[in-house]
Amino acid sequence: MAKRKPKENIYHKEKAYLQRAQDFIVSEGYQDVDATKTELTSIVENYEELLDQTVLITRISDRLQKKLDQTNNKLVSLNDQLNDKNEELQETIDNLLKAKVGRKATTYVFIFALVLFVFSEALIEPYIESYYANNIYLSLSVKALIAMSIKPLEMLVEDSLLKIARKQEMNRKAEEAKKQVDIEHKAE
Amino acid sequence: MDNLIIEGTKQSPSVNFNAANGKLELSGRSIPENSFEFYNPLLEWLGEYAKAPKDETVLKVYLEYFNTSSSKYILEVLKKLKEVLKAEGVKVKVDWCYDEDDEEMMETGEDYEDVTGLEFDYHEIEE
After folding, report:
1. Measured between beta carbons, which residues in chain A are less than 8 angstroms from residue B65?
2. Taking CB atoms and an 8 Å limit, are B75 and A64 in contact across chains?
3. Which residues of A touch B117 (CB under 8 A)?
4. How many domains does chain A have?
């Protein structure tokens, strides 16, 4: 069981009044009419003070609780808005990343296509000329094949680059979150 | 008589009670772990101050938030301040400050004014 904190002594004055009244009841003075009247008057005054205090504190407490409630509702609403904005932001970041990766992929594929074209002109074309009697259909088919493979290749390269970029982004976020936790622990 | 100066924290308010000029200030947030421990020195100081107060004593209260046990002690502080009025020819006033649009805090000041009977001036502080 958790250790309870020692109780605050905020009502020590009121407890003292009560103790005094309790002590009086069991004392000899209780038999004395005048002493009893005096004590009763004191008890009534203290009770009135305590009641006024209770009414005031209850009113203040209810008001503050209402304020807390309103603030809490505002926070929940702001949190929802923040989450929506965060999703929008993440979408935008994703789109930007895709655009960036797309440009990179296009560059790589362009270079690759250039190399393939040079390779086809330098090696495949002479081979076709020598062994296939310069078959123009074969030559065109090879070139068409190279051309048609560019788009699928670009998509493949783009997907791979996007996966790598997303993984790097996740690792970066995980590192930042870890740093933040370390900073918070140090602050405590 | 020494002044009472307590630096504020995240849980307890700043206190600046100046016996030399009768200007008393209580500001910040009041949600201390132990309200008795925090407020008792203030009540003791006020008890001493009431024996030889300045002609005019002004208590400025500017609290952002306080918990229920603090509300009891704020009442005790105001009651102690009322004891200052027992001295002849002295004036006591409470400057109750609250943030813009914090109607709840203003109403709380009005409640304290009703119960204590002290003179309260209300000041809305723009953020």
Report:
1. 64
2. no
3. none
4. 1
ipTM tops the 0.95 cut = no
Probe site for chain A from B67, B115, B116 (most A CB atoms < 10 A): B115
Provide, as residue numbers in chain B, all residues whose Cβ is less than 8 Å from the Cβ of A12.
36
Mapping DSSP onto H, E and C, the string for A100-129 reads HHHHHHHHHHHHHHHHHHHHHHHHHHHHHH
Angle ∠(A48,A22,A37) on CA atoms, nearest 5: 60
Interval A82-131: pLDDT, tens: 999 999 998 998 899 888 888 888 888 888 888 888 888 888 778 777 77
Tens-place pLDDT, residues A126-173: 877 777 766 778 878 877 887 888 888 888 888 888 898 889 888 998
Token representation of residue B87: 């001295």
Share of chain A above pLDDT 70, in %: 95
CATH class entry, domain B4-125 = alpha beta
d(CA A59, nearest CA chain B) in Å: 8
A-chain CB neighbours of B75 within 8 Å are 53, 56-57
Nearest C-alpha in B relative to A63: B104
Q: In what order do the strands lie in the sheet with B23-30?
A: B4-6, B14-18, B23-30, B56-66, B91-99, B119-125
| Domain assignment of residue A122, given as a range | 32-187
